Amino acid sequence: MNPIRRGFARVLTAGAAVAVLALCTGGADAQQGPIKIGMSLSQTGGVAAAGKQLLVAVQMWKDDVNAKGGLLGRQIELVTYDDQSNPSNVPGLYTKLITVDRVDLVLGPYATNMVAPAIPVLMQHNKTTISMLALGANSQFHYNKYFTMIATGPDPKTAFSDGFFEIAKEQKPAPRTVAIVAADAEFAQNAADGARANAKKHGFNIVYDKAYPPPTADFAPVVRAVQAANPDIVFQGAYPPDTVGFIRAMHEIGFKPKMYGGALVGLYITPIKMQLGPLVNGVVVSETFINAPTLQFPGLADVMKRYQALAKNAGTDLIGIGYVPFGYAAGQVLGAAVTACKCLDHEKIANFIRSNEHPTVVGNVRYGKDGEWAESRILTTQFLGVVKPGDVSEFTDPKKEIVLAPAKYKTGDMVYPFEKALKK
């Protein structure tokens, strides 16, 4: 080859190598600075109690990684915004993260209501994310770079009621009728859709099926309407405020169906459980994670011990078991993907997440259709023997909330009917 051509070819080859490196790392300037990870997490508004825990969890993961040298030899910097628990804020915040802040990676947001409006923005910009505790948010979009950190499995809408109806069917005498009541908002309605499917599957007659507006403050009329339908069991899809409102109204009115519970997000939050105290006894909850001897995965105890030491000064949930492990695990999966790919290419990161099993503090996670977990692990639990309102120690005792299903994680037997459980 002509020496000039050989030299030109070497220049082209070197140029191509630099171009590939720039695509993976964002260029030399990006190598010298931190890797920026952007997200919105609710710090105010209706779901702030969960959003605050998740933010502390992600910050803990970031600090742990940075202490070990960072990702790709670079420190991690978090760029976060408060979406104020308002879905309409989310598209603008993620657009800003991507186009103005120019973050390298994305996590979140939290909650179905916030995640659903974020997905079109992520699709437009071809970004990978791991959302936190969103129920079926990608079922309409089928976006292949979306993943979620919640154990709902391949059928997310039914996952929050599978165990509830299976356990109800096992009781003697078996209940026959069900009321389905839910907030008129994304997560609760997805849970209600699943409850309808499970009611039909297990041969229950639906005698009440209505939604209430999320701002509802007085639940006495709602509870009276459900009571008038005389259902054997009641399944509810609820956020924190309506979880409290409905349970209090049930006790004030004296409504005692044979079984009550469902997707009650409020009962994942320690201050709400402390506030309700013995009023939670007998309630059957579709839980994502609890403190149980059957759910002790590598690294979990250390993360929870360190979180709980931070919680009081951080002004967050004192226990945090329902949310913190998932926030930390989302960081673990993203970090593992970046490390394995040795770059920040969102296509490669998504392919790695999709194709591998990921050891995390919530157990080994493998992804399937629509970025949901390949296998469901939603827990069906029951509160029993809670005595003192306002006492956090009531909810650190694994005997006060037992796992009924799945069988692999079971720690106790159902107390039925609801009235009997109230006296337990």
Kindly describe this structure.
The protein starts with a helix and ends with a helix. A hairpin with a 2-residue loop joins strand 11 and strand 12. 43% of the residues lie in helices and 16% in strands. The chain contains 14 helices and 14 strands. The chain is globular. Mean pLDDT is 92; it is low at 1-30. It folds into 2 domains: 33-151 and 296-371, Rossmann fold (3-Layer(aba) Sandwich), CATH 3.40.50; 156-287 and 384-422, Response regulator (Rossmann fold). The chain has 424 residues and is an alpha/beta fold. Strands 7-6-8-9-10-13-14 form a 7-stranded mixed beta sheet. A 3-stranded parallel beta sheet has the order 2-1-3, sandwiched between helices. The protein has a two-stranded parallel ribbon with strand order 4-5.
